[in-house]
Every structure is written in C-alpha cells, then in structure tokens.
Design goal:
The chain has strands at residues 11-15, 33-37, 49-51, 54-59, 62-67, 72-77, 86-96, 101-111, 114-120, 125-132, 135-138, 146-147, 158-165, 168-173, 176-182, 190-197, 204-214. With 222 residues, it is an all-beta fold. Strands 2, 3, 4, 5, 7, 13, 14, 15 and 17 form a nine-stranded antiparallel sheet that branches. Strands 1, 6, 8, 9, 10, 11, 12 and 16 form an eight-stranded mixed sheet that branches. The protein has a single domain, classed as Jelly Rolls. A hairpin with a 2-residue loop joins strand 4 (54-59) and strand 5 (62-67).
Length: 222
C-alpha cells in the first residue's frame, strides 16, 4: 500500500495566471469546448517562471513543469471562472524524473487555500484531495493513494479527464475511472494543472497538452 500524500508541503510555489482565451495554431479547439489551450501560443496566459526550484514554461507546443527539488509543488491556474459544473480533459506525460511523482488537474480553485486536486502518479496510483481553508486532505476512498488499473506508467502519455459535477468528483485516466469522491464544500472557481515532486526522490518533469473545459451536460464524448 502506498504511503499517504504528505499534507504539509515544505515548498509550494503558486503560479497565478490571468484570464485569456487561447488562439491555437497547431490544433483546432473542439467545437463544444468552453475553453481550450494547446499551448502553441506562448501568450495564451499561463505564467512562465524560472527559479532555483525549477520552471514552468511553454515549450514545443506544451506546457511544461520541471521541478528540480524534492517535496516541491507548482499549481498553474488557467485564469478562468466557471460557476457551473465542468469536465476537464488534458494530455499529460512524464518526460523526466522518477515515477514517484504527482501530476494532475485542479477544479473549483477559489484561492491558494481552497480547491480540489485530482492526481495520478506515473507508477500507477491515484487520489482526489481537497485543500480547504489551507488544510489539505484526501477525500477519495481510503484517504490514501490507491493502485489502479488504467494509468499508464513511466513516460507513456496519460489522457486525464476530471468531472466536477455537483458533489460528485470523478477522475478518469485513459477512459478508465480511477478515483471517485463526494464533496459539496467548494462551488465554482478556476481550473488548472499541478505537478509535485516526491518527498524523497528528487524532482520531476511533466508535459501537458490540449487542455480543454466542457459543459459536462453537452460534452460530445461520454
């Protein structure tokens, strides 16, 4: 059984972004998307940073979070506001570092102290967490990361889907449901991405692409 996610983070770097619609060149936005970014335009609004802990940047039509130190996290906001239910989809791939890592999606981000996190690891674990009034805790079954079929390991691409629908919070990897939680505490807010290095095994390097937000009632795919 995998150890529980460390709820007290020794180093958290919040990447704040501003609202801006993408103008993709490499791909066309899905016609039914409320918001889409393929990161082909480096002016689409996601923050670019470089410091002693790592970087978050546009690179080769991706959004890339590279972390060089252990126990370090970046949160990246899209700079949008969604008051209603959303479905979020994104492609994610580890391009460096150990498989003991954390990567995924945020929904209902209201401020640095209040949001939901939907996470996988590239050694096959998943969980759903909530930060509320500054306290981070797991809300998915077992209150720990669980080993799940459907998550691609190593440097294979994972297509993630997150449904924030009422109190039902669902995480899918490559079409397979890998975590489920129920919570009604947070309503509405921003969406975004997350990557975190493990507490013991150094950094991580994650690429994201094709970030899309849909109205779950109207989304084309089931």
């Amino acid at each position: 059984m995998r150890k529980s996610f460390t709820v007290i983070l020794s180093s958290i770097l919040l990447i704040t972004t501003f609202a801006c619609s993408a103008s993709p060149a490499a791909h066309f936005a899905p016609s039914d998307a409320l918001y889409f970014d393929d990161f082909s335009q480096n002016t689409s609004g996601w923050t670019v940073i470089q410091d002693e802990n790592g970087s978050a940047r546009y690179e080769d039509n991706h959004y890339r979070i590279s972390i060089e130190k252990a126990d370090t996290e970046y949160l990246a906001e899209a700079g949008q506001t969604f008051q209603d239910d959303v479905r979020i989809e994104v492609d994610a791939r580890k391009v460096g570092g150990p498989d003991v890592n954390y990567l995924g999606v945020m929904c209902r981000y209201q401020d640095p102290d209040n949001y939901y996190l939907f996470l996988i690891t590239t050694d096959g674990y998943s969980a759903i967490l909530m930060r509320y009034n500054g306290t981070l805790r797991m809300i998915s079954p077992g209150q720990e990361f669980l080993k799940m079929d459907g998550i691609n390991s190593g440097e294979k691409l994972n297509h993630l889907r997150v449904d924030c629908v009422g109190e039902k919070l669902t995480l899918y990897a490559n079409g397979t449901q890998v975590s489920l939680a129920y919570d009604h505490t947070l309503v509405g807010g921003d969406v975004g991405l997350m990557a975190r290095s493990s507490r013991l095994e150094g950094g991580t390097d994650i690429e994201f692409d094709n970030f899309a937000v849909y109205d779950p009632a109207l989304a084309a795919n089931p």
